[in-house]
Amino acid sequence: GQQLNQSPQSMFIQEGEDVSMNCTSSSIFNTWLWYKQEPGEGPVLLIALYKAGELTSNGRLTAQFGITRKDSFLNISASIPSDVGIYFCAGQASGSRLTFGEGTQLTVNP
Amino acid sequence: DGGITQSPKYLFRKEGQNVTLSCEQNLNHDAMYWYRQDPGQGLRLIYYSQIVNDFQKGDIAEGYSVSREKKESFPLTVTSAQKNPTAFYLCASSINGNQPQHFGDGTRLSIL
Predict the structure, then answer these.
(1) Taking CB atoms and an 8 Å cutoff, what residues of chain A touch B100?
(2) How far apart are CA B41 and CA A5, in angstroms?
(3) Contact A33 B100 (CB under 8 A)
(4) How many of the other CB atoms lie within 10 Å of CB of A15?
(5) Could you read off the pLDDT of A3-15 as tens digits, one per residue?
(6) Secondary structure letter of residue A35 according to DSSP
(7) So what's the pLDDT on residue B42?
(8) Could you identify which of A12, B20, B34, B106 might form a hypothetical disulfide with B46, taking C-beta atoms 3.0 to 4.6 angstroms apart as the criterion?
């Protein structure tokens, strides 16, 4: 099956710092999604990417669909305490099921 | 409000007992999904349904069963055959199998 490697596994940063996390795949995807999950809740969709090279922003969040179609990254600028949570990437090839990364646990120290 | 509703939020199961987790959506989505999440881990697909009256096994279907008699409902039964049922269960839906999935708030199942 398709493999998704998400890194880093966890991050501990100071408020105000920028954050970057990424996902790489062993195969080509047509769609990349980024979700955030807070404790005891379901993941919430942050950004959806549909085209190689696409760069999309949602407030302080920016995500890119890699040119090779095998990777994607998510950046968070000027982090704040409410950014704390687990960030998941997910990729999907045409006609296939959505595959999730293992998640990046983000901790922001005030 | 439109959305995905999972109930109950917390559920306790006795040994040898079957329990059913509810998932309802009023988004008019064709596709629905059940995932299992263990502490510190990602999401693993249990079952999914692309259309009413049809469903397929995911990666960890053993010990679970589902039904899709109505478009808006996709209940998951955790049977006594599932030997390690303690986990956080997430239901999701999407317009179709190629569109982003949206999640409910989950049900946490524990063994008494």
Answers:
(1) 31, 33, 45, 48
(2) 13
(3) yes
(4) 12
(5) 799 999 999 999 9
(6) E
(7) 87
(8) B34
In whole angstroms, give the CA distance from residue B101 to residue B88: 17
Tens of pLDDT, residue by residue over B51-94, are: 999 999 999 999 999 999 999 999 999 999 888 999 999 999 99
Interface test with B, best of A5, A87, A100 (most B CBs within 10 A): A100
Nearest CA in chain A to B43: A100
- Separation in Å, CA of B70 to nearest CA in chain A: 22
Enumerate the residues of chain A whose CB falls inside 8 A of the CB of residue B90: 42-43
Verify whether the Cβ–Cβ distance B98 to A41 is below 8 Å.
no
Cα distances (angstroms) measured from residue A34 to each of A8, A27, B56, B67: 15, 18, 25, 29
Q: Is B42 on the interface with A (CB under 8 A)?
A: yes
Structure tokens, B68 = 């899709």
Measured between alpha carbons, how far is B99 from A107 in angstroms, rounded to an integer? Answer: 30
* pLDDT at res. B1: 56
Which residues make beta-bridge pairs with B26?
none
Residue type, B103: F
Tokens 């890699």 appear where? A66
CA A88 from centre of chain: 5
Calpha distance A45→A31 (Å, rounded): 13
Among residues A74, A96, A88, A87, which one has the least CA distance to residue A29? A96
Question: Distance, in angstroms, between A46 CA and closest chain B CA?
Answer: 11
Contacts across the A-B interface (CB distance below 8 Å):
44
